[in-house]
Every structure is written in C-alpha cells, then in structure tokens.
Amino acid sequence: MDMLIGCLHIQIALVILLLLTQTSSTETSSYGKNTASCFVSERSALLAFRAGLSDPAERLSSWKGERCCQWKAVQCSNRTSHVIKLDLHSHAWSIYFNGIRAYTEPEDALGGSISSSLLGLRHLRYLDLSRNMFVGARIPEFLGSLPKLRYLDLSGARFVGMVPPQLGNLSNLRYLNLDSDYGDVYSKDITWLSRLSSLENLRMAKVNLSTVTGWPSVVNMIPSLRVVDLSGCELSDSPNPPLHNNLTSLETLNIRNNDIYEQIATNWLWDLASLKYLDISYNSFYGPLPYKIGNLTSIVELRLPGNNLVGMIPSNMKNLCNLKALELTSNNINGSITELFDQLQGCSWKSLETLFIPNCNLTGRLPTTLEPLRNLSILDLSGNKLTGPVPLWIGELANLTELTLSYNKLDGVIHEGHLSGL
Ligand SMILES: *[C@@H]1O[C@H](CO)[C@@H](O)[C@H](O)[C@H]1NC(C)=O
Ligand SMILES: *[C@@H]1O[C@H](CO)[C@@H](O)[C@H](O)[C@H]1NC(C)=O
Ligand SMILES: *[C@@H]1O[C@H](CO)[C@@H](O)[C@H](O)[C@H]1NC(C)=O
Ligand SMILES: *[C@@H]1O[C@H](CO)[C@@H](O)[C@H](O)[C@H]1NC(C)=O
Ligand SMILES: *[C@@H]1O[C@H](CO)[C@@H](O)[C@H](O)[C@H]1NC(C)=O
Ligand SMILES: *[C@@H]1O[C@H](CO)[C@@H](O)[C@H](O)[C@H]1NC(C)=O
Ligand SMILES: *[C@@H]1O[C@H](CO)[C@@H](O)[C@H](O)[C@H]1NC(C)=O
Ligand SMILES: *[C@@H]1O[C@H](CO)[C@@H](O)[C@H](O)[C@H]1NC(C)=O
Ligand SMILES: *[C@@H]1O[C@H](CO)[C@@H](O)[C@H](O)[C@H]1NC(C)=O
C-alpha cells in the first residue's frame, strides 16, 4: 500500500515537472527572438528577393523593419527562428468550362524575376509561388539548391522553357507542383525525378513530355508516391516498367488527355492495387478491359472515356465495393445494357453514385425490373442504341439528380409513376 502511494506521488511530481517545463518553453518562444525579429542574413535575402519582384498590388508592403518573421507570407520556425515557409501564391479564380479548368489573371499577382538571393534562406521548407505572373521566365535552376525544401509549388506561374533537372537534388521534397496552364514548360528527360526519393505528390499537368519515353519506369523508382498527375502532357507509348511494382502507396493516377496508344489488357495499371482514383480518359488505349480490373479493390473513381476500349466490362467489376464513379463514355462496349447491369450487380451496385455510359453502342431494352441503385445520383445512357420503354424502376432511384437518356431508340410513354419518387 505504502509503496503504491509512493509511486503515485512520484508520478504526480513527474506530471507537474512536465507541465512546468512545457509552460516555460512556450514562454521563451513567445518572448524569444523568433516572433520578434529574425536572422539578419535571412532578412537581407528576403529584401533582395523582393527587390527583383514587381508587386503592383503592394502585397509585400509589410516587408519592412526588423521583424521579418512577422512579415506577410513569411513564417519562421518557433524553435530555431529560421525562415521555413514562404507562401506567395496569388489568388486567381479558377473556373471550369466544359471540364477544362481555366484561371483568370489574378489581380494580386507578383511578377518580375526570382532572385537567387532566395538561397540565403537555407532552412526554407515550403515555397509556394503559384499563380503569379512570371511571364516568359524560366524555372530557376538554383531552386535545386534549397536542400531542406519539402514543398514546392510553381504551378500556373507562367514559366516557360525546360524544367531544370537540378530539381532532382531536392531529396527531401514531398510535394512538387509544376502544372503549366499554358503548356509552355517542357522536359525531354525526366530521369531526374527518380532522385526525389521522398516524393508523395507529383503534379506536372500540361508540362510537355512529348519526347519522354519510359515515364512508368521513372515513377516506379519513387515508392513513396501517393498522387501522380501527368494529364495533358502529350505522353505517348511507353514500355511497361519492370515487373516488380514499387508503387504500393499510389492512390491517384491521372494521365487523361495524352497520346497513349497501348493495349489496355496487358497494361501495368492493373497492378497498382492501392489505386483509388484512376483517370485514363482521352487517350488511345485499345482492346477489351481485362479480368484483372477486379483486383483494384480500393478503387473509388474509374474514368475511362474517349479510348478505343471494346467489348463488355468484365464480370468481376461487381467486386469493386468502393466504386462510386464509373465513366465509360465513347468506348465501344457494343453489348446489351442488361448484361452490363448484370456485371455490376454486386458490391459495386450499392456504392455507385455516378454511372456515365453515353455513346458506347449499348443495345437492347432496359430491364423491366432492377435491384435499386440506392446511391445513384447521375445516370447517363445517352447516345446508345437502347430500345423499348423507359421502365418504372427509374422512379426508384431515390438519390437521382441527373438522368440522361436522349439519343436512343426508346419508345412508349413517360408518366407520373416514373418521376414522382424522384
Ligand atoms: C508556432 O507557434 C504558434 C503559436 O503557438 C503556432 O500557431 C504555430 O503553428 C507554430 N508554428 C510552427 C511552424 O510550429
Ligand atoms: C544538382 O543537380 C545537377 C544536375 O542534375 C548536378 O549536376 C549537380 O551536381 C547537383 N548539385 C548538387 C549540389 O547536388
Ligand atoms: C511539345 O513539344 C514537342 C517537341 O518539342 C513539340 O513538337 C510540340 O509542338 C509541343 N507541344 C506544344 C503544345 O507546344
Ligand atoms: C523500386 O524503387 C527503388 C528505390 O527507388 C529502386 O532502386 C528500384 O530500382 C525500383 N524497382 C523497380 C522495379 O523500378
Ligand atoms: C488478383 O490478386 C490476387 C492476390 O493479390 C492474385 O493472386 C491474382 O493473381 C490477381 N488476379 C489477377 C487477374 O491478376
Ligand atoms: C459504334 O459502332 C459503330 C459500328 O457499328 C462504330 O462505327 C462506332 O465507332 C462505334 N462507337 C464507338 C463509340 O466506338
Ligand atoms: C458488335 O458486336 C456484334 C455482335 O457481337 C459484332 O458482330 C460486331 O462486329 C461488333 N461491332 C463492333 C464495331 O465491334
Ligand atoms: C451510399 O452513400 C452514402 C453517403 O455518401 C455512404 O455513406 C454509403 O456508404 C454509401 N453506400 C455504399 C454501399 O457505399
Ligand atoms: C441516398 O439516399 C439515402 C436516403 O434517401 C441516404 O441515406 C444516402 O446518404 C443517399 N446517398 C447519397 C450518396 O447521397
């Protein structure tokens, strides 16, 4: 008993000690030099960097005086007082038009040139210059010499020219965004990417990669990847990467709007078992979908429009229990709608929210009875060769917000019973 109480006392004493040390460390940090001033060398680096910029909206008017850690867009480490973050993204409006994202020219954009004085910020971990207007400037090679950088966003900042391979020196990088809205940035050889051994998020949409071969082998060298966006990069065919698949964490792969002409069945894509979001729309993948597709058991969104896929979807797609969106638009399924529904009536039937199958040469009559698709909100079967009447189960799709059946050969009457439940 006594020993137990003794132990308790010691534990309480320890807790009090811990609380005391924590309070005192918070106090030092709130009175410490980090929130008040900053390193002189880093302040001069920031001022020299600013001197190269044009800033019509006067976003950087707070950049004066000693206390550079309090300047707008600058963040210092609470522990070391070094500048660790510079977030200078501008606020373009992004608008979607026909599925294409466009940006307005931001009023608060910075321009001018990016001074190599940035290298004075040796401890910088986070640099965001996105959506500014460095019109016609090249991505500076010296950015590859900021060794602590973990986050680099240069997207939509109107850079032109070659992506400097020096970026491959940023071995701590977790996030790299080089999305180029205007397609004026290119890379002829992306092997430098494989040196980014901590990279989780790779975004290079609309960077011209038309002369790159073997991109799958390059990304396969980076096992940490979770997100890869190489949409609109003019990618063409590439050999499948070596058999062993390193990409066990990859959740998102977007390669829409490229020029890939490859057989779909034997493609390495189906070995990416952790995928949740796959978009291969608007390429030239051809042939029937393989049975292997049923192995993508984590898949949530599968977007396959605008390829040359032929034939019925495989029956084990019904095992994809997380599938919310299936888009097959403009492929030659060339089979009956009843069979297609049968292939999905299982696990995926319950999760499906979006079913886009227009312009797929679907034939036959819509089945008269159907197990309800309880979660379905969008159903598009337009532009097919469907015949017969519109069945009453349409009215049982309680979550439906969009129904498109136009451009078929349907007949009969649509009455209140079809629609009153919607
Ligand atoms: C620094 O401390 C402030 C206040 O305690 C906190 O809000 C902020 O997130 C901390 N910054 C970092 C980088 O840890
Ligand atoms: C950075 O990368 C370039 C080319 O990729 C290389 O020549 C150079 O030696 C690297 N610099 C450092 C400091 O690692
Ligand atoms: C992409 O690069 C290739 C080869 O350099 C070039 O022929 C093509 O015009 C470029 N594409 C665009 C949209 O500029
Ligand atoms: C897997 O990744 C490691 C680390 O980058 C690399 O050395 C290896 O070659 C990769 N394997 C394949 C098959 O690409
Ligand atoms: C699906 O995955 C299982 C287990 O990972 C594997 O044994 C099987 O061969 C795969 N099926 C196909 C068609 O690749
Ligand atoms: C539908 O089939 C016709 C031939 O019957 C073919 O010409 C057309 O390309 C097919 N549609 C699609 C989207 O493949
Ligand atoms: C569509 O399917 C029918 C019957 O299965 C077949 O005869 C025809 O050749 C197919 N058409 C195309 C364009 O694949
Ligand atoms: C249906 O949708 C709801 C809301 O998004 C979700 O919670 C539920 O899990 C879905 N049902 C299935 C079977 O996926
Ligand atoms: C569909 O409707 C049911 C009840 O009407 C609701 O519980 C469920 O969350 C809805 N699913 C979605 C995806 O909104």
TrEMBL record:
UniProt keyword list: Cell membrane, Glycoprotein, Leucine-rich repeat, Membrane, Repeat, Signal, Transmembrane, Transmembrane helix
Pfam assignment, any one: LRR_6
Keyword Lyase: no
Keyword Membrane: yes
Membrane-topology annotation of the record: Single-pass type I membrane protein
Any one cellular-component term (Gene Ontology): plasma membrane
Name this polypeptide is given: Leucine-rich repeat-containing N-terminal plant-type domain-containing protein
